[in-house]
Description:
The chain is mostly helical. The chain contains 22 helices and no strands. It is 64% helix and 0% strand. The chain is globular, with a radius of gyration of 21 Å. Residues 1-7, 12-21, 23-28 and 374-413 have low confidence and may be disordered.
Amino acid sequence: MDVLKSLGHPEEMYNLVKYKMGGCRSVMPKLDYEAMSESLRTCYVYLNQTSRSFAAVIQALDGELRHAVCIFYLVLRALDTVEDDMTIPFDKKVPLLHDFHTFLYQPEWCFTESREKDRQVLENFPTISVEFRKLGQEYRDVIADICHRMGVGMAEFLEKKVGSMKEWDKYCHYVAGLVGVGLSRLFSASQLEDPEVGRDTELANSMGLFLQKTNIIRDYLEDQQEGRAFWPQEAWSQFAARLEDFAQPQNLNSALACLNVLVTDALRHVPDVISYLSRLRNQSVFNFCAIPQVMAIATLSACYNNPQVFQGVVKIRKGQAVTLMMQATSMRAVQCIIAQYCQEILQRMSLTDPSRDKTLLILDLIREKTRSQDTLPSRIHHLSPVYLSAAMLLAALSWQYLSASTGQPMSTTDMQGH
C-alpha cells in the first residue's frame, strides 16, 4: 500500500523501497552495549520500548551527548507517565509532579501504583536515576531544572483548559518548548554546539512550539474522541459554540476557518526554526533537530484547509516522509523543503478565508527568511558519502519515528507530541 501511494512520486518510491530493504546498515556506528553498565543497557532498552519517535535519532547522536539525551528522554517519559495516569488522585498527582525532580537524587525512589503502559520507567526508576547521577554536573543541572519546570507546568494544566492564545503558547511551552530549551542546553554543554545555542531560549522554545502545535492541530479528531481538548478557546469560539461541533459535516466551513487560524499561528514559529537550525555545526545534532521540523512543516501543509482533519487522520505519505528524512541533512536542503510546503499552503488558500491576510504575511516572512539565510555561510558544509549514507540508515532505523510522523498519536515526551 505504501508503494502504491508513492507511484506518482518516483523519488519517494525509490527511497521507500531502499528504506524497506534496510538502507546501508554498515555505515552508522553501532552502540557498544557490552561496554555499558547493566543499568545503562536497561535504559536503552527502555528507550526503544517507550519511544515511538526518537529512539533511533537519539542513538545517532555523537559522543557523551547520546547518553545525556537518552536519560533526559527517560526522565521526562517517567514524569509524563505520572501526568497521563488518570488513576492517580489529583491530590496525590500534584505533589508528585512538583517534586519529581527531587527523585533524581533519591536512589531508592520508585512508583509502583501506575497503570499506564510505560509504567516500567516509574517502577524501575532507580535504574534511570543511577545513570542520571553518573552524568556530568553540566548535564544533571539541565535535566533536573527542566524536569522541575515541566512538572510545575503540568500540574498547572491538570484541571485548566487552554483558553487564550497566550495560554496555548504557555501550555505548549511547558510540554514541548521546555524540551527544546533543555536539549539546546545539553547540546551546548556537550561542546558540540556553541554556547549561544543553549543561551537563546526564545529560539529553542519556538522549535518545541512548532512541533507541538502541529501535532495538536493534526490530532483534533482523535483528541475529541478521547475526551481531550487542546485547541484554544479564543480561536474556536469565534466559529462555534462548542469545539466538538467542528466534527459535524454541516459546520465544515467554520471548522476550516478555525483550522486555518491555528495553522497560521503555528507558522509564525518557522522563522525562528530557520534561525535555530542555521546556528548548528554538528551534523548529528543538525539531523536530530531538522528531521522533526521538516516532518512538521509537511504535516502542517497537509492539514491546511483540509476537511480530513475533522473526518479522520491526516497523514503524509511514508515515501514522502522517508524522502524528507534523507534530504534534511543540510541547511540549504531544509530551506528548500520549507519553501516547498509554504508554496503548497499558498496554492490551497481560499480567497474567502478569514485568516488569508495573516497567512500571506507570515508566508512572506518565511520566504524572506529563507532567502536571507542563503547569504549566510552554512554551519553544515558539504556532506561526505559517510554522512549521506548515515542519513539513509537513519531513515531505515526510524520506522517508529515515521509512524508517529504519519498520523499516529504521540505523547508529550516524544519531544514533539502531546
